[in-house]
Amino acid sequence: MNAARRRRLGEALDIMNGVLAEEQEVLDNLPENFRYAAQGEQIEDCVMQLEEIAGTLEDVISNY
Predict the structure, then answer these.
(1) How far apart are CA 64 and CA 56, in angstroms?
(2) For residues 12 and 7, what is the distance between their CA atoms, to the nearest angstrom?
């Protein structure tokens, strides 16, 4: 992978991490009764998937 594409992926990762931080903050600030309801579980699933995607993207950037 050339440097320009690696840089673009790094920019995408920065955006992804920003969205992840926002979703984590939403989850952290949910009242406990919502956190364990469908809405909270959905947000938690989203956070977990974003973390996985960000990790994969980090691996791609550093390994290729």
Answers:
(1) 12
(2) 9
How far apart are the C-alpha atoms of 12 and 26, rounded to whole Å? 21
- For residues 10 and 61, the answer to whether their CB atoms sit within 8 Å is yes
pTM: 0.87
d(CA 51, CA 22): 12
Give per-residue pLDDT as tens, 3-52: 999 999 999 999 999 999 999 999 999 999 999 999 999 999 999 999 99
Question: Cα separation of 15 and 25, whole Å?
Answer: 15
